[in-house]
Amino acid sequence: MKIVASCRACSGALNYVFDLGQVPLANTYSETRAEAINLPRYPLRLCQCRRCGFLQLDVVIDSATLFSHYAYETPRGSPSLTHHYDQLVEAIATIHDAPPKRILEMGSNNGAFLELYASTCEVLGIDPAENVASSVRVARQFFTKETAIQFGKCDVFVARHCMAHIDDLKGTFEAIRAVLKPDGIAVIENAYALDTLIGAQFDQLYHEHHSYFLLRPFFDLAEKVGLNLFHAFRSPIHGGSIVMFFAHRGAGYHATDALVKLVEGEEIVEGALKMFPARATMAIEGLRAGLRSLAYSTVDTYGATAKGNTLLNVLGADALHIRYAVDSTPSKWNKFLPGTGIKVISEASAIPLNDEGFPYPRPDAYLLTAWNYADEIMEKQRAFRDAGGVFILPFPFPRIV
Ligand code: DWN
Ligand code: ZN
User: How far, in Å, from the CA of 309 to the mean position of ligand 2?
Assistant: First the structure.
């Protein structure tokens, strides 16, 4: 762990924006409750560079600790994720003239995205997590400027929701440039800081998210390494994301009107940033009040999510008597959430239509920490709701549904 005093993008000095206290690492699921509760905690605070405005944490946990063994597995069978992937594939087909012959994906996880290309072109995932089984060929490596040479050139380079995990951004962009063919494109998708700020999504803050991205810093970063940010679009996935497209400078890709409009839209960032501490505090207080109003009901959480672990630790969930965390990821089952020690159980064991033969009695309410999948999860659990069960949704504002 290191605490940095200067900006990752420009070395300017950092200002504190919002302090969430001492929080354990989000994706650490322990074998025992005692171990989970006693995990080391680290300061979690959002900072902004005084010089260039870049949003980041000042506490940096090393990549091997965070990602060599990774608990997150991309969910399978999610309608919203499927729809989002379809949009990405369509956007890539529209922008890249010829069908890609070779695609690399950094942080490919279980291969869920690359699978879509596996029958039409050569795909290679690059992901250091030894424990995550992949449906496509994967190099178990970190993608860095030192390792990039091993992976060969590609027509399309993809990095979904992992650029925020990177400490050395410039080095990673140099690596991207090194693997892109002359007419290749790089597609980088990340949670969009504008959505995080406007939505008071304090739970998007956890230690593996070193940076909180707007479009503006990427123009500079790309230019420094000979790349060009030429297009972007917003997506509702994961609570609001930005999908950015890069190419070699001079490769003939010109800034689209969509990109120019989005950059103009970032004028509201400073205002949103000023409001963020107050609005995040209101969200935290609102959720606490909502949970206290359910003090005589049984409450579980739905989703053993990384962001849920920020949320539960900041709320002080141990004092709120949350019993279990329901999740579809088998490797998380029977483990305990970091800091709060809540036990993870499977969806199947948690959601009986009648309680007979099921080990865990159905709760009265679920606090939905996987709120980015709210529509589909509430649809999937229609029977629970028909039987009088409710969901507590933290965002865009705390409410009971
Ligand atoms: O940025 C990141 C995002 C994209 O993924 C990473 N740093 C880590 C991870 O964050 P997360 O854990 O907050 O992500 P999700 O995608 O909100 O996690 C969803 C969780 O909910 C998974 O553990 C699976 C579970 N789930 C479920 O139990 N039933 C998901 C769905 C769709 C379901 O129906
Ligand atoms: Zn800076």
Answer: 28
